[in-house]
Amino acid sequence: MGRRCKGAWAVAALGGALLSGALVAQQGQNCHGTETGVSDPATLPAPVKMTGIGNSRMEITAANDQAKEWFTQGLNLLHDFWDYEAARAFEQAVRADPQCAMCYWGLYQAGSFRGQGVVWAQTALTRAQELAKDKRASKAERLYIEAAVADNKEKAERSKHGPNTAGAGKTEAYKDSKETKVLRRLVKMQPEDVQARIYLAESMMNGFDAKGEPKQGTAQGQAMLVEILKEHQDDTAANHYWIHAVEPGNHPELALESARKLGELTPASGHMVHMPGHIFYRTGDYEAARVSFENSMHVDEAYMQAQNVTVANDWNYVHNLMYLIADLMEAGRLTEATAISAKLTRARAEVGPTLYRGVPRDGLTRIDVRLPVMLRAGAWRAAHGALETKTLPGELKNLEGLRESMVEYTGGMLALEMGDVAAARKASDALAARVKDKPAVPPEDMPGMAAMSMSKDAMAMPLYNFLDVASMELEASVLLAEGRGVESDALFTKAADAERELGYREPPMYIRPVGETRGDALMRAKRYDEAKTAYEAALEERPNSGYPLFGIAQADAAAKRSSAATEDYARLLGAWAKADADLPQMVVARAWLAGQAVSGE
């Protein structure tokens, strides 16, 4: 109901021009976890009672307090996106009362979190319907179940007919789903039911437009969450969903209050401790984000050790590590990012290659866990060398197309850096040939590796979109180096638009903003004012990141704006107060400020 997986509507943010089918194909990428979701909870060990996971409650019809207590635990874990533990809790509730309709409703919710088609989840929903018909549920409970059935049928229908690409790129008028209509009846019947209001708000979320503003359904859902939080400031589910409701848009700062409190309200839930980092990252507070992500890492590690749970059954752990690495890179803490990457390597080894979901950033870490760090830093020589010499093992051969494409991309960028325009042109042409043909959008119900194939001959849509941006920014850079400025400007603009159309990802799918590449190309062309504007655009994407700040300082220095450059370099050193001291940007900034001090300027 509502949010099966947090990627279901969030990935659509800023992606108005994307094909809706492409969004569907990419939907699972934010549902970090196994290909098929949680194993049948009937086969899993019994759960343990948990505290510090949330404060949600729902009155249900059950034969005993034990079933109600396990249901409450499962409900909070659902709101925590902790489907593995939620499934165990609801299964335990069923064991305590096999006639509890809402306990089966909970099982369905946990089983369908990462997508439809899980057999035991469908069986649970059918059982919930049967019990509801036998009047083993209140009127309100029957509406909860009816809403879940409506949502399940709509998703199955979309899967049956395949993705609908009609009207792609347009912001269509909002229309209530059948699920939403049922939930409206529920809220009208008992307006004091906080859970019903939360589920209603979530069911309406339909993403953001190309300008980053909420679409009609999302705006209505946001308004409902605002009202809930006015009445229940510390409701853990509402605070969690509020963060998700605003983070993809233009005003993530609206969730700062929720971000500051959520981790303390739910200290035992790795994902809830992690969530504030989303807002802190988006607002450029990379130190606060680091604290959230590191705390989440420790919570998950303690949980997995105590409960003998593997990484495969704690999807937040790998997701959190990748976000922590991305955060440390923006803060200039590359040594720490590389160290955390070692943890990611060990986690990947435990999970195994079959969990690869088709996210290019994920694929790059599997080729070489250092690659995102190298690419973010613009370390083209190191990245090119790592990619060019890598031999992929058999289980990762589906990443060969990604590896070969990135060899061309990094080789072209390195050639431009070295002033070898002819070599850059050759690399750009080779990469363009690889992304010449757009792949067919796979059926909506095609899971895992089949839908996300990265093979050389079967490029998946997420990979295509990622490499298409890379190809455009490399070509635009080469055009500028060849003196074809008008064509370059047009293509850089197109590349920036395509980067936005990748949608909102956690962390961003495109590792290094197009604006920085554009700024670098303009600096080489000695178009310093335009370079500064390009770096400023990148800074809007990654507030307070030292990379665009350094570019701005370089542009001002090259344009002989010494006072402005001094302020820029000072701002860089302030933003990167805890960055690696030996980074080239830090060395240049300190040397500039020292030189200005000596000259008395």
Describe it.
This protein is mainly α. Among the domains are: 1-180, Serine Threonine Protein Phosphatase 5, Tetratricopeptide repeat (Alpha Horseshoe), CATH 1.25.40; 356-512; 532-601. It has 30 helices and no strands. Mean pLDDT is 88; it is low at 6-35, 165-169 and 443-458.
Compact description:
By secondary structure, this protein is an all-alpha fold. It is 64% helix and 0% strand.
Share of residues in helices: 55-70%
**Overall 3D form:** elongated
Residue-averaged pLDDT: 88
* CATH architecture call of one domain: Alpha Horseshoe
Helix vs. strand class: mainly alpha
Regarding CATH, which class of one domain? Mainly Alpha
CATH domain topology of one domain: Serine Threonine Protein Phosphatase 5, Tetratricopeptide repeat
Order of helices and strands: HHHHHHHHHHHHHHHHHHHHHHHHHHHHHH
Main sheet summary: none
Number of strands: 0
**What's the total helix number?**
30
Fraction in beta strands: under 5%
Layout of strands and helices, then pairs:
Elements: H1 7-10, H2 20-27, H3 65-79, H4 83-96, H5 101-111, H6 119-133, H7 139-161, H8 178-189, H9 194-204, H10 216-231, H11 236-246, H12 256-265, H13 270-274, H14 276-282, H15 286-307, H16 315-330, H17 334-351, H18 360-367, H19 371-376, H20 380-388, H21 400-418, H22 421-434, H23 448-451, H24 461-481, H25 485-501, H26 514-524, H27 528-541, H28 546-558, H29 562-575, H30 584-599
Helix pairs in contact: 3-4, 3-5, 4-5, 5-6, 5-7, 6-7, 7-8, 8-9, 9-10, 10-11, 11-12, 12-14, 14-15, 15-16, 16-17, 20-21, 21-22, 21-24, 22-24, 24-25, 24-26, 26-27, 26-28, 27-28, 28-29, 29-30
